[in-house]
TrEMBL record:
Transmembrane segments: 48-69, 89-111
Taxonomic path: Bacteria, Pseudomonadati, Pseudomonadota, Alphaproteobacteria, Hyphomicrobiales
Superkingdom in the source lineage: Bacteria
Protein's UniProt name: Membrane protein
Entry keyword set: Membrane, Transmembrane, Transmembrane helix
C-alpha cells in the first residue's frame, strides 16, 4: 500500500515559520532598543557639551575680568597714567568687548538656539557697526 500523508500534516517549512517569525520580531525589538539608546546618548551628549561650553565661557569671563582688573591697576595709578591714553583705553575696552560677546553668544544659545544664517547676520552686523563708528570705510 502507498503511504499517504495525513491531510492535517504541515510540511517542515511551515513548522519552522513561527520560529523565523519569532527571530525577526526579536531582531526588530533589539534594533528598536538600540535606536532608543542612541537617542538617549545623543541627548546626554548635547546636555554635557552645553554645560561644558557654559563652564568654559564662564572661565574665560572670569579670566578677562581678572585681566581687566590687573591691567587697569597696573596701568592707571589713581590719576596718573603710565602709558599712552590709546593703549590704556585698549587695555580696558578689549576685555569688556570679549566678555560682552561671550555673554551674547551664551544668551542666544540658551534662549533661542543658533540657526544657520546667524553667522552671516553677525558678520553683516559687525561690518555695519564698524562702518558706523568709522573704524572701516
Amino acid at each position: 500500500m502507498i503511504d499517504v500523508p495525513p491531510i492535517d500534516a504541515q510540511p517542515e517549512a511551515e513548522k519552522a515559520q513561527p520560529q523565523r517569525q519569532t527571530n525577526i520580531e526579536f531582531r526588530l525589538l533589539e534594533a528598536s532598543a538600540k535606536a532608543k539608546e542612541n537617542l538617549n546618548r545623543e541627548a546626554d551628549q548635547r546636555y554635557y557639551l552645553r554645560w561644558l561650553a557654559v563652564i568654559v565661557a564662564l572661565a574665560i569671563i572670569f579670566m578677562m575680568s581678572f585681566a581687566l582688573f590687573h591691567m587697569s591697576h597696573n596701568v592707571i595709578w589713581g590719576t596718573i597714567l603710565t602709558v599712552p591714553a590709546t593703549y590704556a583705553i585698549a587695555l580696558v575696552v578689549s576685555p569688556i568687548i570679549s566678555i560682552t560677546a561671550i555673554l551674547i553668544a551664551l544668551f542666544i544659545a540658551a534662549f533661542r538656539g543658533f540657526k544657520k544664517d546667524d553667522e552671516e547676520n553677525f558678520i553683516s552686523a559687525a561690518k555695519d557697526g564698524m562702518r558706523g563708528s568709522g573704524i572701516i570705510s
